[in-house]
C-alpha cells in the first residue's frame, strides 16, 4: 500500500509543470506505444486496447483521468497520435461493418449501446487497413458513454513487437507511384548525425520503425535559409507541428524513396500520414542476417542532408560529405524529448 502511494507521488511529480492535456497525452503514448505488455495491458495485433482497461492503468488512475479526457486527447492531438474505435456492445465482435474508426477522432455509428457483455472481448478489431479506413465520413455524435465499448491505439511509434504493422499500415509501392509522397525526410540532431554516418544509416533503435515526415520540402528549407533579414527565432526553428518529425530537428535527411523501394526496402504510411520503414537486414561477413537481424535504412538511400539550425545548408549529398559539422555542434547532446 505504501509502495503504491510512493509510486503514485512519483508519477504526479513527474508531470509537474505540464498541462493536464499534455500529461494525459504523454501517458497514453507511453502505454500504447511502449509499455502495454510490461503493464499487463492486452493489445491486439493492430495495437488496439480496451479504453476501459486503459482507464484502469495506474498512471491514469493516479490523476483521475476520465473517458471524456481520453476522447479529448484523441481529438486534440496535434499529430493525430491516437485512433479511437467504437464497438457497439450489441455486436459480438468488432469485425462487422458497423464498427468504424476515424483517425484522430472517435468513431461513431448506430444507436445508443446497452451495457456490454463482459464475457466477450472487444479486441477483435478489423484486421485489414481497408476495413479500418472504410469509415463513415459524417460527423455524427454518439450517445454511447461506456468506455468498455471503445478501443484505442497509437497510430504509429510502437516498440511493442507483437503489434503487426502490416495489419493496419498502408504499404507503399512502385506499382502505384501516384501514392508515393514527394518528400520523405527524417529529422535528427547535430550529435546524432556523425553516429548515423558511422553506423551506415538510420536504425529503428527501440522502435519498430524509423519515422519520416512528408515535409518540409528540400526546396523550401534551402530557400528559407537564403532569405535575407530573416527573423532570428524563425531561422532557429519556428515551432511547427509536423507529423513524423520533432519540431526542433536540426538536421534533415531527405530520402530517395524510389531508389529504396527498388532495392526492396519496405515503406509504410500510417493513419496520421507518417512514413515508416524498418529498413533492410544487416548481413554479416558470411552473408547471414541471423534470426534477430538488426535492420538499417542505408546511407545509399540518402539523397540530400541539410543542417538548418545554424543555417549551414547542404552538408551531404548523394554519398559525398559537402561540409563537416563544426565541433561545437557535434558535441552537443540531443534536446530533451519535449512537445
UniProtKB/TrEMBL annotation:
InterPro entries: Ptrans_KptA/Tpt1 (IPR002745), RNA_2'-PTrans_C (IPR042081), RNA_2'-PTrans_N (IPR042080). GO terms for biological process: tRNA splicing, via endonucleolytic cleavage and ligation. Residues 1-14 have a biased composition (Basic and acidic residues). It comes from the Eukaryota. GO terms for molecular function: tRNA 2'-phosphotransferase activity. Pfam families: PTS_2-RNA (PF01885). It catalyses: 2'-phospho-[ligated tRNA] + NAD(+) = mature tRNA + ADP-alpha-D-ribose 1'',2''-cyclic phosphate + nicotinamide. It is an enzyme of class 2 (transferase). Catalyzes the last step of tRNA splicing, the transfer of the splice junction 2'-phosphate from ligated tRNA to NAD to produce ADP-ribose 1''-2'' cyclic phosphate. Belongs to the KptA/TPT1 family. This is 2'-phosphotransferase. It comes from Penicillium malachiteum.
